[in-house]
Every structure is written in C-alpha cells, then in structure tokens.
Amino acid sequence: xxxxxxLAIENFTSAEKAPDLQHLVEYSKRAEELxxxxxxxxxxxxxxxxxxxxxxxxxxxLAVLAANTTTVTLGTGILVLPIRDPALLxxxxxxxxxxxxxxxxxxxxxxxxxxxxxxxxxxFKGRGQIFERTLEICxxxxxxxxVTGDWDDLSFRRVRMLPKPQPxxxxxxxxxxxxxxxRVATLGDGWLTYFYTPEAFTASWAKIRQYAEEAGxxxxxxxxxxxxxxxxxxxxxxxxxRSGPWLASYFDTPAWSxxxxxxxxxxxxxxxxxxxxxxxxxGVQEICLIPQGYxxxxxxxxxxxxxxxxxxxxxxLAAAARGxxx
Length: 326
Hints:
It comes from Streptomyces aureus. Residues 15-285 form the Luciferase-like domain. GO terms for molecular function: oxidoreductase activity. With 326 residues, the chain is α/β, with parallel strands linked by helices. The protein has 11 helices and 11 strands. The chain has an 8-stranded parallel beta barrel with strand order 1-2-3-4-7-8-9-11, surrounded by 6 helices. A two-stranded antiparallel sheet has the order 5-6. Helix 2 runs parallel beside helix 3. The radius of gyration is 19 Å and the shape is globular. The model is unreliable at 313-326 (pLDDT under 50).
C-alpha cells in the first residue's frame, strides 16, 4: 500500500503577515498539478491577543479552493466543532461537498482555546459532550430522510436537509488522550494526528484499533492522516537549524501530549524519504506535510525528489476522504 501526500495551506499566518487568498489558490492549483492528493486548512476564529495570528475561516477558504481545483481532497485540520451551530455547519459542509463533487473531509476536534468558547457562548468545560452532540446531529442531517429530536437546547421537528451530500463528508477526529481515541474508534471514519513520531503513532493507532474491535467495528475500515512538518535542506543539521525556530513561532505542541517538533521530517531528500518510510511502516496512510515557511521551493522539491523515492499515489483514503455512506 502506497502512502498519499497532502499539504497544509497557509490560511493562518504569524502576526507580521496576513493570509493571501489569491496566493492560496495558486498554491493549491500547483499542488494538484504536482500530484499532491489533499489540501488541509487550519481552523480558529481568532488566536492570540498580544501576538494575534491572522486567519481566514477554514470552510470558506475550502469553498474557494473547491472552485479552483478538480481532484484534491479538501480537508480541515482541524475544525473546532463545539463552537459551531450543528445545523449551520451541516448545511455549509453539505454545500461544499456538493459543489466539490464529494471532495470534503472534515477533521474535527473539541478545541482548546477558551476565548473562542466564551465569545460564542459555548461551555468550555462541557466541550467534549457538545462535540459528540454536534457530530451526531450533522451525521443525521446528512444521511437521514427526516430528523426529529432534542439535544440540550436544540430542537428538531421533522427536519429535512436537502440536498443530501453524496456521499456525506468524511469525518476524521483529532486528539491525543484515550477518551478521544475511543471517539475516533466509535464515532468517526478515522484519526487525524498532529506532529506524532512513528513510535507515538504506533501506540495510539493500536489503541484505536482495539477500541474499534471492542465496539464491534472493523478496524481496517478506519483511516488516518498524519500532519508532519517538512524541511528539505542540504543536510539534516542545516534543515533542523531552519525548521526549529519556525515551528516554535507558528505551532503549539502541548507538553502533556505526544505531539512534538521532533516529528519534523528534515534533511536531504534521501533522509526525508527514510524518515517518512518509518511513518509508513508504522501504519500511516496519508501524510499532510507542513512545508517549511510554506515555501514553494519545498513543495516543488518534495514532489520532484522525495515522492518518487516512496512510490506515492495509491488511493488509500477513499472511505474517509470521499465520505462514507454509514
């Protein structure tokens, strides 16, 4: 089984920059030409105060990219699910799925930035339960002819959401701790990881598969995507020297989690291929690369010099990325 490679897009930037939607369109069109199979948008309403991160809304951005691409999967990595109204989210996602001809994959998680919850009137301490509620409502609206039921303060009376997305958007759940891994196994189509080493991935993926078996699901039907930083350089040392400061300025890896900047793929093309092979052997099916500084040179070099070393291209994420009927 060959791995597939996608790219994160720069829809959020450091405080010194601002996202450029036209650039993202050109970046995405070129990525598709080069053989990347998916594009992943980051999600926050706002992040940071003294040093805020300018951000384009994830689903709106993906809708624009859907109009300018034809084959790549369009994903969120991740969408903060609890702060969104489930009916509005279901309708928005269904529209993007229809317009993109079934290319939407929602990576979703419970979130961590409390100010977003306060600003949207969402209980931060109860975000896990709200996450599960929102996921359940969306799946029902996407797949059932008629929805009736009460969820907390939300009431649905013979609601029909048409047109239904065909198929429904894929659902990959992101997170670290065991209760989240159990959600992956029981509620989603698979797992979206963030900055995991091959060893950490192996341990958590084994737990997910075990939880799926315990719940009566076939673990082989679950899919995964791993988000990994990339820096191709003249040597591993030179690439590390560039990668470390940039990752520290852009990305958070909680100390209590398995996420670590040590997961970065760095070095010559051959060294990068060797490191990625370890992830493939650990069971990673698709890798979302976060290229150093979102530099086009990194995107081009990876496609030309690293992809061929790994035989990328087999469609291993059809169930999750194209959606599932269940």
